[in-house]
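Q: What residues go here?
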């Protein structure tokens, strides 16, 4: 087995990209796929939208399409959302949920004892 100092830069990047694809697939299988069981009678195929810098990695997108076969893989570009705007979109969603009084923590994931609103609305005075 090659040691890390003997691997080429290309091999290190390919390994990291494959690891990313495998971890995303593993977490999809653990957390998303069980939710889709409720939608089995739907005529629509679910779509998994990818955002962030990974959308520009053709190999990563190809591997995700090969590994996750029960839904379509697309990027947020097709929703007219810049993939680089992931953090801004997440904060906008959290703000919307807070304004609507919808809890956004996930107690089963965070270990919180109950659902709560995240964030605080601070009106201008």
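A:
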């Amino acid at each position: 087995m090659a040691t890390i100092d003997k691997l080429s830069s290309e091999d290190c990047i390919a390994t990291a990209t494959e690891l990313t694809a495998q971890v995303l697939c593993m977490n999809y299988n653990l957390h998303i796929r069980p939710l889709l069981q409720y939608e089995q009678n739907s005529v629509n195929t679910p779509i998994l939208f990818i955002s962030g810098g990974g959308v520009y990695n053709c190999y990563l997108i190809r591997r995700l399409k090969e590994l996750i076969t029960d839904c379509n893989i697309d990027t947020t570009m097709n929703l007219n959302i810049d993939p680089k705007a992931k953090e801004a979109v997440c904060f906008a969603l959290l703000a919307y949920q807070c304004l609507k009084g919808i809890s956004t923590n996930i107690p089963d994931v965070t270990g919180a004892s109950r659902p709560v609103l995240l964030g605080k609305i601070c009106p201008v005075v």
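A: Context that may help when evaluating the design: The chain has a mean pLDDT of 88. The first helix runs from residue 9 to 36.
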